[in-house]
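Proteins fold reproducibly. Look at a sample protein:
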Amino acid sequence: MIGSMHANGHSMVASLVFAVAAHAAIAQTRSPRIALVIPGPSDCVIDGLTRPAMLESDIDPASVSQFCYSELNDVPRLMQRVVAARPNVLLIFASAAVVRAARQANPTMPIVFADVPDPVKEGLAQSLARPGMNMTGIVNNSDVLLGKRVEIIREALPQVARLAVLGNLDNEGQRNYLRTVQEAARVLQIQPTVYEVRSRQQLAPTFAAMERDRMQAVLLMPDAWFFPHRVEVVALAATHRIPLVSGNVAYAELGGLLTYGANLSVMAKAAWGYVHKILDGTNAGDLPATQPLEFDYILNLKTARELGVNISPLSTMRATRVIE
């Protein structure tokens, strides 16, 4: 037993020495390698949201390699490429499933996550104050925000009685999100109807079905899968004259009617700040995970005019940004 205790003690000391040495090596790296993983087409480039935040955090874009996925089926193969690049830090946006895949591919790789739901519930952190697991990042309270989006629909478009809910219930978390939407809609006397899509090819016929069913608005469920197809989603909503409600500013800028969600520019800056601290030698798991403090409520009045819908004056006053 004593021998076992000595063996365990030597193992613990060795692990501690290895961890300290690893973080010291990161701190001393003159040319750090950073991997950025986001939803998007395979040829995607660092976008206008990510680059300014990167520069503000003193991150050299030349040190960043970007990896993108359009479908969750792409992720295991993508992670093989990420691990082969041997990054000092990995930054992942918008998907808890991708964070888990990255940790499975290389448990020792420091990871920063951003725009993901409750990391404790998702198994990505032991606690928000001290995440451990060599990971940290910024949370997006999707359940709370979904309920708020339904409230915003009622306030901005009081005539809405039939709400389409667009999502893929095969994806993790979607059924819980749906229950949140259904409960919020019930309280506000709105009838929600679920429209499931599992591939890009299903988007067009699904929006056509919404029009046939006389849906008065469509709420996009939180799902990183939609983001690579955002141009088509917004265009289909316009073609079928159905107001689109989302949680990402990109949809509003493309023509979506209403957006309510965490300010992604602030979130991106905080995420790159984590990357900077880790490169300076801080253990990722020692950095507290944080929740967003700034939110966007965006109204696209240009789209409202094109659709012929009236936005309540109260909503226009409350909006943090109005697109004319």
